[in-house]
Design a protein that fits this description.
Keywords: Membrane, Transmembrane, Transmembrane helix
Radius of gyration: 14 Å
Oligomer: single chain
Order of helices and strands: HH
């Protein structure tokens, strides 16, 4: 059985990947620059910060 931190990490990375794809397609389609940068930042947070916090928080 998977632990909660692993499930949170996997789900967060999947959501981050979706935001990353949206930002990449926005950059290609010449969307508003602020929207594209915001999507990239949200993707980075979901793919790095949340899994690390989840791993550290659940390990304690």
């Amino acid at each position: 059985m998977l632990e909660t931190s692993v499930i949170v990490g996997i789900a967060s990375i999947c959501v981050g990947f979706v935001f990353f794809l949206a930002a990449a397609s926005g950059a290609r389609a010449k969307w508003n620059r602020k929207v594209t940068i915001t999507l990239f930042v949200v993707a980075i947070v979901f793919m790095t910060v949340i899994p690390v916090i989840g791993a550290v928080g659940f390990a304690a």
